[in-house]
Design a protein that fits this description.
It is a single chain. The chain is of the alpha/beta class and about 550 residues long. About 45% of the residues lie in helices and about 15% in strands. Strand 13, helix 22 and strand 14 form a beta-alpha-beta unit. Helix 4 crosses helix 7, helix 4 crosses helix 8 and helix 13 packs across helix 14.
Length: about 550
């Protein structure tokens, strides 16, 4: 695949830039091409910082960037929290806060001991104040905790900014080590990430921000697309602005529907046939399950799709997800959130990755290990971990739910890869997950004959040939009680743009709520917009 003219401009840009990238526009392809072009020009000790919002997205970008045997050299691929911890806090915090009395651990404030000490309340105060308003007493408390071996994950952004501002060695290191900082999904940045990005840029590191304000769906976590727009609009920041508007992924009618949903005056692409459908189903979510069971084979055959896992059912929340999981007769895979998914501790993240490479052959074990240890300097440890991972993968291939017998092996791997991250809560969550077949099932990839079920949040960054978009009721999507209306708009937009060939917008005349009560199913306001009616087909049978 050759880059388009717009993609080439970004790949060849040598200065700071902002890229506004629409769904399906090839942003990961473009960034990977840019990184592949940069890496051979850098000395061995130098690299790029490539930040993605999730580990999965980070792994995909890394894999594409090194495809063909490109040496990543001194590059960092990962999430922003991991960057704060591994590149700023652990190497330089003792220069500012003093030498810790014991090995540093990264903790979440919701552990019992921290709640008893009211540390969670202090953290809430610090986060509400923000970095610029911190007082000496707040900094002193953070220092005391560090000396005691405690760094709170919720505060790593604030701590990293403080270290950056007060450590010449930290600033010199980042400037010497990295030529570029590239942040994907910038619309999901928080204030600390935005400020750190600009600070690193001011060191002379070339800065690249990529995102789409219309896909900002993490407002509940204080992420805001205004930081992306701030970079693009303010000349004093010195960014060249590019757009990737052409959707290379979706059918033209899906592109039209998604763009018109956001802007009724948007221009459209000529289409021969519509691939966006709306279906009103008499009954509840259970009856939606029956309709999918009855029509899935016919729909997939129409679009020349042989495998059920090329189709996905997207839901707003677990209520409908659970109903589909229980009622759908078609073989399916329901990707539930596990306790490890909902925890932000480093060992919880590591356990997710370990389970991922054990169960999913498409995940590269070598690259996962390489993220945590220097393979050339620690050959013995690296070889031991790789052997153990392969052994677990082989032994669990016939009985994946037998992993509860291998908790000691997993803990040993974690202690080798990330000794500073050992965490009591994460170990308890691991035990909970590997002892529950439903949780383990979420780490197994969907088989070819299984249609996939997941939340819209979980689908972000993924694509499917056919998408069944559910939960299109008022009070669900959109929810009038949500203060930030754009979150629901963006969430629906993400759901629409996961579909490549066909999109089915399904709603029912009744729905079950979280208490199990049957309520009227009121058609979503998103479906009744007059200017969208001619851009979808109503299914009456």
């Amino acid at each position: 695949m050759e880059p388009t003219k717009d993609q080439l401009k970004i790949i060849n840009e040598e200065s700071h830039c902002v890229v506004i990238a629409k769904p399906g526009s090839g942003k990961t392809f473009t960034l990977a091409k840019k990184i592949k072009k940069l890496l051979p020009t850098l000395p061995e000790y130098k690299g790029v910082v490539a930040i993605s919002y999730t580990n999965k997205a980070s792994n995909e970008l890394k894999n594409r960037s090194v495809d063909g045997g490109i040496d990543i050299k001194g590059s960092f691929f990962g999430t922003i929290d991991k960057f704060y911890i591994s590149e700023i806090i652990l190497p330089f915090a003792d220069h500012i806060f003093g030498k810790p009395n014991k090995e540093i651990g990264i903790y979440s404030s919701d552990e019992d001991i921290f709640i008893q000490n009211k540390d969670d309340k202090r953290i809430e105060i610090l986060l509400n104040k923000g970095y610029r308003n911190l007082e000496d007493k707040h900094v002193n408390w953070v220092k005391k905790k560090f000396v005691d071996g405690v760094v709170f994950l919720e505060l790593v952004g604030l701590i990293a900014l403080y270290i950056f501002d007060n450590s010449i060695a930290c600033r010199r290191y980042l400037k010497a080590r990295y030529s570029h900082i590239i942040i994907d999904e910038y619309q999901d940045s928080g204030s600390e990430q935005h400020e750190m990005f600009l600070k690193i840029k001011d060191l002379g590191v070339c800065a690249v921000a990529v995102g789409d304000g219309d896909q900002s769906i993490f407002g509940f976590a204080k992420r805001d697309s205004r930081y992306l727009l701030d970079l693009a609009r303010k000349e004093e920041h010195g960014f060249n602005v590019y757009s990737l508007n052409k959707n290379h992924r979706c059918h033209s009618s899906i592109i039209n529907y998604s763009t018109l949903f956001l802007n009724r005056n948007a221009s459209t692409i000529p289409v021969d046939e519509l691939s966006v459908f709306e279906k009103k189903i008499i009954g509840s979510q259970e009856n939606i399950s029956q309709w999918i069971d009855s029509n899935l084979s016919r729909i997939l055959k129409k679009y020349g799709i042989n495998d059920n896992n090329k189709a996905a059912i997207l839901v707003r929340g677990i209520v409908t997800g659970n109903i589909l999981d229980n009622c759908l007769k078609t073989k399916h895979k329901y990707f539930k959130n596990t306790p490890l998914d909902n925890d932000s501790n480093l060992w919880s993240q590591l356990f997710r990755e370990i389970l991922g490479v054990i169960y999913d052959k498409s995940n590269n074990k070598y690259e996962m290990v390489e993220k945590y240890i220097d393979l050339s300097a620690n050959k013995r440890d690296a070889k031991h971990v790789l052997v153990q991972l392969q052994k677990l993968s082989n032994e669990l291939s016939t009985n994946p739910y037998n992993i509860g017998n291998y908790d000691k092996e997993i803990l040993e791997i974690a202690r080798i890869l990330l000794p500073n991250g050992e965490n009591k809560k994460s170990k308890a969550l691991l035990k909970e997950v590997i002892g529950n077949n439903d949780y383990i099932n979420s780490y197994l990839p969907a088989k070819k004959d299984e249609i996939q079920i997941m939340t819209i949040h979980k689908s972000k960054g993924l694509e499917f040939d056919v998408v069944f978009h559910l939960d299109l009721y008022n009070y669900i999507l959109p929810n009038p009680y949500n203060k930030d209306k754009t979150q629901d708009i963006n969430l629906h937009y993400v759901g629409i743009t996961r579909a490549k060939q066909a999109l089915f917008l399904l709603w029912s005349t009744k729905r079950y709520n979280s208490k199990g009560d049957l309520k009227p199913g009121i058609q979503s306001d998103f479906l009744v917009k007059n200017h969208l009616k001619s851009h979808k087909k109503l299914i009456t049978k």
